[in-house]
Amino acid sequence: MVSVIITVYNSEAYIAEAVESVLNQTLPAGEVFVVDDGSTDGTGEVLRRFEGRIRYIHQANQGQGAALNTGIGLAKGSFLGFLDSDDLWTPTKLEVQLAALEADPSLELVYGQTRQFRSPELAPAVAETLTCDDKLQPSPLISGLLVRRSVFDGVGAFRVDNVTACLDWYLRMREAGIRHSYPDHHITWRRVHEANTSLKHKRIGQDYLQQLKASLDRRRASGGGAKPMVNGK
Amino acid sequence: MREAMIFECNSPDVVFENFGDEVILLNLRTGSYFSLDPVGMLCWDYLSQQVPIAAVIERIGAAYGLEPVERIAGDIDRLVEEFLAKNLLRSSAQPSTAGEAADASKLPPVYAPPSLTTFDDINEMLLLDPVHDVGEVGWPHPPAN
Q: What is the H or E stretch that residue A210 is in?
């Protein structure tokens, strides 16, 4: 069974479309959790229309890593899929990824291709200022991740004490040598809007570089040296 | 003449941080990241602060008491070539005023040619910007305390 975990924080404008993209899969998920990390806008209200089709969990605001961990803790499926509240799945996303995992038992994790789009509500003057490469490209973002639950036993949970929990988990997954693939199939739409680009450069110096440093140090400590990581053990 | 050329960090495409034991650089345009060893770190400190190559050679040579300093010129030139090939540095018109401040105290006792290690193992992730949903009060962020 596939369990889907959607995490959300103050995303009343986008969350319904995200949930619909999960509910409209050609291969339906066994269960769909929406973990609301203490939204203060109308997110909870918007989600009422999906009552009976999703499990809605509201928790005090703790950050994305904690919300993801809440979902993983509740999920019963042997495969876990994730979606950010502002992104979208294509209708055959789960079908394609699950087929890849079932065809190859040694494959532990599947991503796919994403296409970025400018959020349609943006004023043209604002939309023009946002970088949005709309070519199909391989995406290791959380919104495209379908993973065997057992991977979390080895890699561990998402960290809750840093701002880029998904990059940290991705680095640890790669360090662990988890075998993964990027099928050619278009599986997600990544929404580009003001909030997810405006702070890019400001945060990178603090977060990306520190996480890369931590990853290199872990690789050295494990005896492998700070070598580039390869796919699979 | 090449030795007189002045460079600067190719920001904002390139960001870097000195962690004491290594400098890590990230090229946001390509998704590649890099590690510099201690001699390379000092070269980067000088070059990114617009110290001309000739002066960098002079200072590294002096730090190791190497005579003549020209014997390490090829090493430094090769490093600059790599910085330029990876678009980490770009030409600059402004001579430095801050270069003298670079810290040579962490150099290893014996000179070894500076080394830049390139990592092309997570380009897809870095190119797509995993910092998602980041309004000032939005995700991701650590707990309040």
A: helix A200-221
